[in-house]
Amino acid sequence: MRILVIGGTGHIGSYLVPRLTIAGHEVSVVARHAKPQYTDARLGWKRVKWIIADRAAEERTAAWAQRMRSIDVDAVVDLLCYTPEQSRVMVEAFRGRVTHFIHCGTVWAYGPSERVPYEEHMERRPITEYGRHKAAIEAELSDLFRREGFPAAIVHPGHISGRRWLPIDPQGSRDGVDVYRRLATGQAVHLPDDGLATIHHVHGDDVAQMIELCLIRREASLGQSFSTVAPYAMSLVGCCRAVAGMFGVEANLAFVPLDQLARHVGERSAGIIREHVTHSPCASIDKARRLLGYSPRFTTEQIYAESLDYLLESGQLTL
Ligand SMILES: NC(=O)c1ccc[n+]([C@@H]2O[C@H](COP(=O)([O-])OP(=O)(O)OC[C@H]3O[C@@H](n4cnc5c(N)ncnc54)[C@H](OP(=O)(O)O)[C@@H]3O)[C@@H](O)[C@H]2O)c1
Q1: How do residues 108-126 score in pLDDT, each as one tens digit?
Q2: At 65, is the pLDDT very low, low, confident or very high (cuts 50, 70, 90)?
Q3: What is the pLDDT of residues 128-169, one digit of tens each?
Q4: How far apart (Å, rounded) are the C-alpha atoms in residues 153 and 104?
Q5: Which DSSP symbol is given to 123?
């Protein structure tokens, strides 16, 4: 199959593109540089057809729409679409010309958890602009499928993680390696409130797996949305205990009200933590298991273990 991957060199694309080329597909990738950021360009990238373009710049003129209309493929995977306006340009360019159109959303489209685990059929109540835009794109694409059979499928990843970049950490932030050092050496780590807010990671390769499964089980994926997450969410306390346990120590946890956390972690980090605590994502993968056979390779603990292995090996985390 001829597949276009837009934004195919980042967290998801670095894993997705080699999966697709190894499976024998002809893959075109749009990016500003012909280089995967997180996997080795020598493995699975040699046959990629590069389309070097700056989407943001081209969207300011008609150049992007023209470029999209000129591309002849069977399937499109759009990893770089953040607004309904951008999505409509893609629909216009590929309507009637592709058999599959996969949009990458986010669990932020769901909004804060109410009933858990969240299932895809439940109401969307996004609270950020990012989440509202993604929910609006999803609604439009789903509607287009129902009304005219536009071949859309939507994947909603959790916190994407991988070996060579920092995952959302056990405090709910992404603030360098200090929290890992503290957990590894028994120093106090401050958590918001009772520390039971949840985070829901997913490994970049499991997002790639979900997209590949959509392509393989096309009929089952059409018109559907799929939460794309690890097998289970974890509380911040659980994440801290898991990471400390990897170093053979008990987590030394201190609990402070969320609105006082900035005193301990700084304003920037407290803002990131607040966003994660407020959402407390926890999504079900039952539908993806049932319809697509999705079977995530990585739990949250395994994501932390892989990432810590890299931080230690690369000398970024010293103990
Ligand atoms: N990251 C998360 O935790 C997370 C969670 C949930 C959902 N998502 C969704 O995942 C999608 C992003 O995927 P990702 O995390 O794999 O992205 P990413 O790591 O940011 O990678 C995007 C790739 O696209 C290329 N790119 C960026 N800007 C571009 C532009 N203007 N024109 C052309 N290429 C451009 C970049 O390569 P160059 O620099 O070479 O152009 C980059 O490698 C989004 O739809 C987002 O909403 C992300």
Answers
A1: 999 999 999 999 999 999 9
A2: very high
A3: 999 999 999 999 999 999 999 999 999 999 999 999 999 999
A4: 9
A5: P
Contact call for residues 153 and 100 (beta carbons, < 8 A): yes
- To the nearest 10°, report the CA torsion of 253, 255, 261, 265: -10
Mutate to test the pocket of ligand 1, among 4, 9, 303 (most ligand atoms within 8 A of CB): 9
**What is the amino acid identity at position 46?**
K
Cβ 149 vs Cβ 157: under 8 Å: no
What pLDDT does residue 126 have?
98
**What are the CA-CA distances from residue 197 to residues 168, 190, 208, 251, 281 (Å)?**
13, 13, 27, 17, 9
Question: Which residues lie across from 165 on neighbouring strands?
Answer: 162
| Domain segments of the chain as ranges | 2-160+202-228, 165-200+232-282+298-313
Amino acid at 189: V
The CB of 103 under 6 Å from ligand 1? The reply is: no
d(CA 276, CA 142): 27
Cβ(229)–Cβ(294) under 8 Å? no
Structure confidence at residue 15 (pLDDT): 98
Atom of ligand 1 nearest to the CA of 80: 45
The pTM assigned to this predicted structure is: 0.98
How many A from CA of 133 to the centre of ligand 1?
Answer: 16
Interatomic CA distance for residues 177 and 174, integer angstroms: 9
Answer for the pair 110, 126: CB distance below 8 angstroms, yes or no. Answer: yes
What is the assigned CATH class of domain 2-160+202-228? alpha beta
Residue with tokens 């499976």: 23
DSSP per position, 146-211:
HHH---EEEEEE-EEEBTTBPPP-TTSS---SHHHHHHHHT-EEEEETTS--EE-EEEHHHHHHHH
Helix, strand, coil % in the chain, rounded to nearest 5: 40, 20, 40
Q: Is 96 exposed, middle or buried (0-12, 13-18, 19+ CB in 10 A)?
A: exposed
Ligand 1 close to Cβ of residue 210 (< 6 A): no
